[in-house]
Amino acid sequence: MKSKLEVKDLCYSYHTLEGETQALSNISFNVKEGEFFVIAGPSGCGKSTLLSLLCGLIEPESGTIAIDGVPGKDSHAVMGYMLQRDHLFEWRTIFDNVSLGLEINHRLDEGSRKELDHMLDTYGLLQFRDAKPAQLSGGMRQRAALIRTLALKPDILLLDEPFSALDYQTRLEVCDDISSIIRTQKKTAILITHDLSEAISVADRILVLSSRPGRVKNVIPVPFSDQCIRPLQRRNAPEFTMYFNQIWKELRDHD
To answer: Which of 12, 36, 57, 166 has the fewest C-beta atoms under 10 angstroms from its C-beta?
Structure first.
């Protein structure tokens, strides 16, 4: 499996009138084509900063980012970004919300409309096509947000704690739902989370960051049997506890 994304010696600091705060130090890792890669670490370790660097919202002070072997700034790869909240516009219908990215990019035509209707049908939202976001549950809103992101056919999906605003039971259900959709679509995905159980339930590999400034402590594969593909199935697998204890130890060990 070839590398989709390669990050090497990435460093970034925030600068204010009070001085410099180093957020990330010498971050190196790769993400394989079609891999579900998770970045975990303590609060304030630079996880969201790292995603902002990957999608080009900010530029690194040093180090390189390459997508399919091409420097990030020269790449034409499409990055899909899914945030903590769904950010659906309450005055637009669900269809108008999921088609927003295509509309902005002048790519909303008859063919793309049919594709969106197919996705709404596949993911259980077609009957809410003309409804407003207020009529949907939190989990359904997140599914709509995912469809909006997938509609642009991103090469890499960046997920910034997309389930954290949901109550616990809904969070489990939506995580199970959305991660299964991403795997079915065979998308390369990078998720950041501080929830170890969530990380283990979805990941192929987990990158563990240290406390600030964030450094790579370890990259841990979390293989499961073919019978444990969905997150809820993984949570009940015997190896789940072993992985949890291994990653918990990495996080607690002093740098």
So the answer is: 57
Question: Residue 223, class by beta-carbon neighbours within 10 Å (0-12 exposed, 13-18 middle, 19+ buried)?
Answer: exposed
Among 19, 45, 49, 4, CA closest to 212: 45
Q: Tell me if the pTM is above 0.85.
A: yes
188-193 β-sheet, strand order? 79-82, 156-160, 188-193, 36-40, 205-209, 216-221
pLDDT tens-digit readout, 160-212: 988 887 888 888 888 888 888 888 888 999 999 989 999 999 999 999 999 98
| C-beta of residue 27 within 8 angstroms of C-beta of residue 11 | yes
Cβ contact 33:4 at 8 Å: yes
**Quick one: which of 198, 186, 118 has its CA closest to 157?**
186
**Coil/strand/helix, residue 132:** coil
DSSP H or E segment with residue 146: helix 138-150
